[in-house]
């Protein structure tokens, strides 16, 4: 984790230019502890979820849901991991990984009935990541897909052969306490919604960042919420 200086956790810089204070515990939990969070929209309080929750799905996108149904909750379709993925200059980069359908591979030689005991070298879970189309946002194919790096479509893989190119994001804390996602392959774009419509079942896509900086605009801001903070009406600050 890059910080501009040695500083207390209460003033951690996670992508600049805004410092995270001790009240943004869900941001710290997501970026430092890699705890799963709900990505709640600033405008209407809806949350992001994969359009398809099954682990074997790699060609479906992401949508905004306004009701947390039992099936989505049971499948952890409302939860996302914001996983460190390297650096872009001095900015840390992240993957946005779905908790729905993640698979934990078994170590070599371990039977499926043996769950393991403690830190026994069990591999990290395989999580499907939000992947950006190469031609976004200038074509009609500027949606996103949720899938493993080697299983998304060809146009959702890096142009230089690195599958991760289209899955890395700059995560920026906004002045109003939310976060914005900027793909490294399209730095003038931002994670938003098709036709700029923010309603139930809105399709996630890349949109041009008319705000002109890495903090984006209110309509493209998300609040990371831990599951126990689901009922906190953080979007009330805009009313």
List key phrases describing it.
single chain, 239 residues, mainly beta, two-stranded antiparallel ribbon, 14 strands, 5% helix
Which runs of at least 5 residues are low in confidence (pLDDT < 50)? 1-13, 113-118, 234-239
Strand content: 25-35%
Number of strands: 14
The helix count comes to: 2
The rough form would be described as globular
Note the run of SSEs as H and E.
Answer: EEHEEEHEEEEEEEEE
User: Which secondary-structure class do the elements indicate?
Assistant: mainly beta
Q: What percent of residues adopt helix (DSSP H or I)?
A: under 10%
Major sheet attributes: 4 strands, antiparallel
> How many angstroms does the end-to-end distance come to?
35 Å
What does this structure look like?
It is globular, with a radius of gyration of 17 Å. It has helices at residues 25-31, 70-74, and strands spanning 12-13, 19-20, 38-41, 47-50, 62-65, 80-88, 91-98, 129-132, 144-147, 169-173, 179-183, 189-193, 204-208, 222-225. A hairpin with a 5-residue loop joins β1 (12-13) and β2 (19-20). 5% of the residues lie in helices and 27% in strands. It starts with 11 loop residues before the first strand and ends in a 14-residue tail after the last strand. Strands 6-7-10-11 form a four-stranded antiparallel beta sheet, covered by helices on one side. Strands 1-2 form a two-stranded antiparallel sheet. By secondary structure, the chain is mainly β. It is built from two helices and 14 strands, in the order ββαβββαβββββββββ.
């Amino acid at each position: 984790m890059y910080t501009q200086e040695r500083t207390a956790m209460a003033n951690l810089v996670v992508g600049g230019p805004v410092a995270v204070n001790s009240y943004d515990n869900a941001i710290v939990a997501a970026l430092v502890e890699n705890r799963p969070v709900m990505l709640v929209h600033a405008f209407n309080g809806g949350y992001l979820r994969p359009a398809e929750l099954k682990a074997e799905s790699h060609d479906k996108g992401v949508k905004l849901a306004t009701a947390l149904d039992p099936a989505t909750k049971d499948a952890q379709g409302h939860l996302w991991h914001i996983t460190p993925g390297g650096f872009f200059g001095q900015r840390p980069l992240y993957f946005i990984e779905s908790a729905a359908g993640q698979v934990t591979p078994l170590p070599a030689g371990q039977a499926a009935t043996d769950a393991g005991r403690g830190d026994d070298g069990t591999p990290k879970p395989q999580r499907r990541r939000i992947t950006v189309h190469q031609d976004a946002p200038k074509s009609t194919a500027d949606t996103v897909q949720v899938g493993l790096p080697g299983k998304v479509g060809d146009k959702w893989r890096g142009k230089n052969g690195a599958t991760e190119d289209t899955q890395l994001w700059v995560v920026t804390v906004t002045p109003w306490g939310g976060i914005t996602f900027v793909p490294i392959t399209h730095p003038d774009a931002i994670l938003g919604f098709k036709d700029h419509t923010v309603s139930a079942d809105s399709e996630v896509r890349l949109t041009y960042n008319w705000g002109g900086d890495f903090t984006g605009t209110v309509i493209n801001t998300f609040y990371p919420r831990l599951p126990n903070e689901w009922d906190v009406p953080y979007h009330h600050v805009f009313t």
